[in-house]
Design brief:
Layout lengths: L22 H8 L3 H25 L3 H4 L3 E7 L4 E6 L2 H6 L1 H10 L13 E4 L2 H4 L5 E10 L2 E11 L28 E5 L2 E2 L1 H9 L4 H29 L1 H24 L4 E11 L4 E13 L2 E5 L16 H16 L13 E4 L17 H20 L16 E8 L5 E5 L33 H5 L4 E8 L15 E7 L5 E7 L21 E5 L3 H6 L9 H4 L9 E5 L3 E5 L5 E5 L14 H10 L4 H6 L14 H18 L3 H8 L22 H4 L1 H11 L11
Parallel strand pairs: 10-11
Antiparallel strand pairs: 1-2, 1-5, 3-4, 3-6, 4-5, 6-7, 8-9, 9-10, 12-13, 12-16, 14-15, 15-20, 16-19, 17-18, 17-20
Helix pairs in contact: 1-9, 2-8, 7-8, 8-9, 10-11
């Protein structure tokens, strides 16, 4: 390493596709028979699955305990070959730290890569997301030959930044985010180095969780190492190396073949963020998907510039990782999940943009930016695949985050800092032939769980006042999205606690519908200081709200200092008895709402998952509110009237564009946007109306896109 540089390695992060096949791999994979290969793939997947389950059972952080785990087996060059996970992007991105280790440490005398070593990392430049995502990997040897790596990556939930819980809404640079550890050796000779563990613990608020999560990862990968050696002992090292590489080769060939079956085309989906972290602001992620032949190109040209002092930037490799969430779970759902899939993908990122961060900018809230992009990937992917297989064209799951983060002392006097698990209870997007699944999970971690309430309350200083599905939390449509979960918390038995939130979509929806389906409504935080809820509970008051809808009804008896806030909320002190309310959204709708089966609307009314207002004004269903008896004939008439009214409101496309093109957001929201409406193009040329507004406010027409506010 001393022969090169102590700075970041910009070359290694480009190596997301499989490394060139070695002569050893080429010869070995050619000797692997198909039947043996099929058995090998199943065996390796079971090994990885055992590793994932072990990590979950031994970990302490919210994400690790409830399934946001990426567990992978990698080639000796660092390529992800086998994956057992519900959180694909961490598994795919986990190859970058390994390729860094191979490049920098394998031949470095002061470090080396040897039997019994273990390596740790959390620098988002190599992990691709933000520094709360941490990984541990080990090399696996056979007779002094490195044959593979095994690794586990998980969001630990606390990284020692200026705010607890691993998300820093107020970050101005990477130096506000806490520890930033490039791949380092933290264990030798099958022993962790206690001095380094002490250092890592000292960097965070929740030392217990930090160390337990590291040891959980290590225990899991050691189990996988033992299983791999059993396979090598049974089948031979040449077979193992060849079969592992063949997994990548076969996957890449199958991915390109599947892409070739789709129609060529260009699919565009601009996406927008409504928050800068601690303040409102508009930024753009401009996605164009170009499918040609057996390849797909993602073009991010004309996206907003880097937000120089805001935490919403993302590294390009993080977006490629999130692309793999769609690839592995939807587009290539029937292929192995490994980075061979990237053989079918190309990408183009503009320099120094919001989606291609450089320098010291913060990426603490990059998960919001990345899932905003992924929503666009879902929409483009649905249009790209519909003519080939309509069943794979689905509306997006909730894509806004809505996560409470907290820090302080729990009811046992122990330091804590983490997030709650409700992000794993979002609604699934509607499908072409049925509604989305209620509280299905998280689109990026579909095998995760939101945990039993009692499990969370056991070592967290708050109690749940309720947690259940809430109505109108999804996108309406011919098929509605799955409902999300709303919940209430009351701070309990703690001498000190701060609470905040991380997310987006409080000013406009972040999760859009598909093929005429409705978007998911915005979400926001309500909290009440000096609440009387504890007294009401002690009195067994039957009027207590038992769902998120009831919180906002006139009959709610809770009183106190009520506050409302967007879902990006910097942490603030909460006292015992204070309450906190938030909802994670449902999935996007599919198809026109007036084509929904009226009986399905009545069914949702009976379940409390849709309001009477929505039933009448969105679905246009006629029924008796008391008995919920459907009037089918009157419903047909109502829907015909809606169609006629739509025709009257319609206007020619050119006329619409002429009017729409003269509109613009308030100029004070565009500081970080770049030129409006096209960030890469000069302001005056693109929108004279906005230019005049800016002149009125600033006295000039200069482009302010790089101005720090």
């Amino acid at each position: 390493m001393s022969k090169t540089s102590y700075g970041r390695d910009f070359e290694v992060v480009q190596r997301l596709r499989p490394e060139p096949v070695t002569a050893r791999e080429q010869a070995a994979q050619g000797a692997v028979q198909d039947i043996d290969f099929d058995i090998f793939k199943h065996k390796m997947h079971m090994i990885a699955l055992e590793g994932k389950e072990t990590t979950m059972k031994l970990g302490a952080s919210t994400a690790m305990r409830f399934g946001d785990v990426a567990f992978g087996i990698f080639t000796a060059q660092g390529d992800l070959a086998v994956c057992a996970t519900g959180i694909y992007h961490h598994a795919v991105l986990g190859q970058i730290p390994l390729k860094y280790i191979v490049k920098h440490w394998a031949d470095e005398a002061s470090v080396g890569v040897r039997e019994g070593d273990s390596f740790f990392y959390n620098d988002p430049f190599y992990g691709g997301v933000h520094n709360a995502d941490m990984g541990l990997a080990i090399p696996v040897f056979h007779s002094d030959e490195l044959i593979c790596f095994v690794g586990a990556a998980v969001h630990t939930g606390e990284a020692g930044g200026t705010e607890p819980g691993g998300v820093i809404t107020s970050a101005r640079s990477k130096y506000d985010e806490g520890m930033l550890i490039p791949p380092i050796k933290i264990g030798e000779d099958y022993r962790l180095k206690e001095d380094l563990l002490t250092m890592l613990a000292a960097m965070t608020r929740d030392q217990r969780t930090m160390i337990l999560d590291i040891k959980a990862r290590l225990a899991a990968v050691r189990i996988a190492q033992r299983r791999i050696r059993e396979v090598v002992a049974d089948k031979g090292v040449d077979f193992f190396i060849g079969a592992l590489r063949k997994t990548l080769t076969v996957t890449g060939e199958a991915a390109r073949k599947k892409i070739a079956e789709l129609n060529d085309g260009i699919f565009r989906q601009p996406r927008f963020l409504d928050s800068l972290g601690t303040a409102p602001g508009l930024t753009k992620i401009n996605l164009t998907v170009i499918k040609k032949g057996e390849r797909v190109l993602l073009d991010f040209s004309n996206s907003s510039p880097m937000a120089m002092d805001r935490p919403i930037n993302t590294y390009f490799q993080g977006l490629i990782g999130l692309t793999m969430v769609y690839f592995c779970g939807w587009l290539f759902h029937d292929l192995p999940a490994n980075n061979g899939l990237l053989e079918a993908l190309d990408w183009k990122f503009p320099d120094n943009s919001l989606v291609n961060a450089k320098g010291d900018v913060s990426t603490s809230l990059s998960p919001s930016t990345q899932i905003c992009f992924t929503q666009g990937m879902f929409l483009c992917g649905a249009r790209m695949t519909y003519s080939h297989d309509p069943s794979r064209a689905v509306a997006a799951w909730f894509s806004g985050f809505a996560i409470p983060n907290f820090g302080g002392l729990n009811q046992k006097g122990e330091p804590i800092a983490d997030i709650t698990p409700e992000i794993n209870a979002t609604g699934c997007g509607a499908r072409y032939d049925q509604d989305g699944v209620d509280a299905a999970g998280a689109f990026f971690a579909t095998m995760s769980d939101c945990a039993d309430i009692e499990s969370t309350e056991e070592d967290r200083p708050f109690i749940y006042t309720f947690r259940n599905l809430f109505n109108n939390s999804y996108g309406h449509g011919k098929y509605r999205g799955g409902a999300g979960v709303g919940f209430g918390l009351m701070v309990h038995d703690t001498p000190m606690l701060v609470l905040g939130a991380m997310g987006g979509g409080s000013r406009f929806p972040t999760t859009l519908g598909l093929f005429g389906g409705n978007a998911v409504p915005p979400t926001f935080v309500q909290y009440v200081h000096n609440s009387n809820l504890n007294d009401l509970m002690s009195e067994a008051d039957t009027r207590l709200p038992n769902n998120l809808t009831a919180v906002y009804e006139p009959g709610n008896p809770e009183h106190g200092e009520r506050h409302f806030h967007e879902t990006n909320m910097t942490v603030r002190p909460f006292a015992n008895g204070d309450t906190y309310y938030l909802g994670v959204g449902g999935g996007g709708g599919y198809g026109d709402a007036i084509e929904r089966d009226p009986a399905a609307v009545i069914r949702d009314l009976r379940r409390g998952l849709v309001t009477h207002w929505a039933a009448r004004n969105i679905y246009h269903v006629a029924y008796d509110e008391d008995s919920l008896r459907l009037d089918a004939d009157a419903t047909v008439v109502l829907r015909l009237q809606v169609r006629e009214e739509r025709k009257k409101r319609g206007k020619p496309y050119d006329e619409f564009v002429e009017v729409w093109g003269k509109q613009a957001p308030p100029v004070e929201l565009l500081t970080y946007y770049g030129s409006y409406p096209d960030p890469e193009v000069g302001l005056t040329e693109q929108n004279p109306v906005l230019s005049e507004k800016r002149k009125d406010m600033t006295g000039s027409t200069s482009n302010k896109m790089n101005t720090l506010q």
